[in-house]
């Protein structure tokens, strides 16, 4: 069977095979190689580090709908930057609250990520929606955690 590979040779199916949810602070100290999926409406953003790690921002495979609503950064400038801090804040809402994002949404959560690097900042605003039975949270998953740095 011939499987698709991403730019780092990791099989695309690896998203479901080696999933390990991690804390946001795990990104601190990592050097960014590539960021993929940083588009309005994207359901996942992937951060590849120079040591071979692949991190995935997304919802659980069986969760509610989660999309990147907005972001700010200079993607080109972040290549080669070291992450020096990472933080998240959330704001949960439910039916009856003012200004639901869509007419038929019962619950929704805004998630705000701020990732500071040695070369600038990445800010992401995610919207998670559900009927109240599924997760609206953005998860950070370590998809491929094989350290590819040669130690001397």
How would you describe this protein?
The protein is mostly beta strands and 152 residues long. Helices cover 5% and strands 43% of the residues. It contains two helices and nine strands. The strands form two sheets. It has a five-stranded antiparallel sheet. The protein has a four-stranded antiparallel sheet with strand order 5-8-7-6. The longest helix has 4 residues, at 14-17. The chain is globular, with a radius of gyration of 16 Å. The model is unreliable at 1-16 and 147-152 (pLDDT under 50).
In short:
By secondary structure, the chain is mainly beta.
Q: Could you state the order of secondary-structure elements as H and E?
A: HEEEEEHEEEE
- Average pLDDT metric: 80
Q: Roughly how many Å is the radius of gyration?
A: 16 Å
Overall geometric form: globular
How would you describe the oligomerization state of the chains in this entry?
A: single chain
Class computed from helices, strands and strand pairing = mainly beta
N-to-C terminal Cα separation, in Å?
36 Å
Main pleated sheet: 5 strands, antiparallel
Q: Strand tally, please? A: 9
What helical percentage do the residues reach? under 10%
Order of strands in the sheet with the most strands?
1-9-4-3-2
Fill in the keyword field for this structure.
2 helices; 9 strands; five-stranded antiparallel beta sheet; globular; mainly beta; 5% helix; four-stranded antiparallel beta sheet; disordered C terminus; 152 residues
